[in-house]
Design the sequence.
């Protein structure tokens, strides 16, 4: 039998959940309220839909391999140079580019726990060793402990801000203190996939920090605030020398013409973006208040999802909700056996979830 590389023997393939249509047939339901994937409930901007239609007419041609128009618009929007940007099929591919470009076997990666599982999976795939640092007592990434964990083998540090699945954020001061302790031979990657939703003024803006610290990089995406999750388009921002290395390992023509056109239209659609962010703020507060009225513990989230302690088996609640046509994420896989993660949906979806959760809890002794 042909053996795979040793490093990938340690990881499992990613298995997405069952498609909605399959679940509806399996459960005998007419509809399912999906609040499990942190998607934008408003859908894509109409401007992006029209841009996709026009771009699709050119589908016989390869896309612009450098994402020229989008790159120029985004560099202006962020206040960075065009050579400080790299694009990927979602934020996850950008994470992969960092790992492929910089990690070698026996390197060490420091990451928070719990957080996005892709950090450990992709680092392990490259043969690196992962050192997971638990969150502090406030469910926030423990920056001092991460800095203290640095060794001579440390090559990369991942910081998810806001963190997934907690939605909590770090402080600017704490990040600066940590970075002052990190050597310039260590790459610090700030995963800011949910940055658009942050309204806490003391949380850091990764773009500002990478101007001050050349070993800092930021990852962002059009999936959430811009409503384009299905098109898979994210991007990395870093010093030009770092981006140069990432360009060596990325695939050519990997961002489709349709995705580029939609992202450019969405970026220019300020009315939609502001509506999207404002809507999330209102519904997030509504959900938090309703859940706390039910006597449940909810973390103060700065993202478009909430971590809720349901005070009983999360798996059992997940299964009970699913039977009622509501999909959430059980947080037992994150190390929280009595918590669920629920995305912010439309008001009618949020109310349906809240009523279903209340009914599920009332039936559990």
Sequence:
């Amino acid at each position: 039998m042909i053996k795979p590389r040793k490093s990938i023997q340690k990881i499992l393939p990613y298995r997405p959940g069952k498609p909605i249509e399959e679940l509806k047939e399996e459960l005998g339901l007419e509809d399912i309220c999906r609040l499990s994937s942190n998607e934008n409930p408003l859908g894509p901007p109409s401007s992006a839909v029209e841009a996709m239609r026009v771009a699709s007419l050119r589908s016989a041609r390869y896309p612009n391999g450098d994402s020229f128009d989008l790159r120029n618009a985004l560099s202006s929007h962020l206040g960075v140079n065009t050579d400080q940007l790299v694009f990927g099929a979602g934020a996850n591919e950008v994470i992969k580019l960092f790992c492929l470009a910089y990690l070698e076997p026996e390197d060490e990666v420091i990451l928070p726990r719990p957080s996005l599982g892709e950090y450990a999976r992709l680092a392990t795939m490259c043969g690196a060793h992962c050192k997971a640092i638990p969150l502090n007592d406030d469910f926030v990434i423990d920056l001092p402990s991460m800095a203290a964990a640095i060794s001579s083998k440390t090559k990369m540090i991942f910081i998810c801000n806001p963190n997934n699945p907690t939605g909590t954020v770090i402080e600017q001061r704490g990040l600066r203190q940590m970075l002052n302790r990190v050597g310039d031979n260590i790459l610090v990657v700030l995963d800011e996939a949910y940055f658009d939703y942050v309204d806490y003024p003391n949380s850091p803006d990764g773009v500002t920090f990478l101007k001050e610290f050349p070993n800092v990089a930021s990852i962002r995406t059009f999936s959430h605030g811009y409503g384009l999750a299905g098109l898979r388009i994210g991007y990395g921002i870093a010093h030009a020398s770092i981006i140069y290395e990432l360009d060596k390992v990325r695939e050519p023509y990997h961002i489709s013409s349709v995705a580029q056109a939609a992202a450019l239209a969405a970026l220019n659609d300020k009315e939609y973006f502001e509506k999207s962010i404002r809507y999330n703020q209102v519904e997030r507060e509504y959900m938090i208040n309703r859940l706390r009225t039910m006597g449940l513990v909810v973390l103060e989230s700065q993202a478009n999802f909430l971590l809720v302690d349901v005070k009983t088996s999360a798996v059992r609640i997940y299964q009970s909700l699913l039977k009622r046509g509501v999909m959430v994420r059980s947080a037992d896989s994150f190390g929280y056996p009595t918590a669920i993660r629920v995305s912010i949906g439309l008001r009618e979806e949020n109310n349906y979830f809240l009523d279903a959760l209340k009914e599920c809890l009332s039936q559990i002794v």
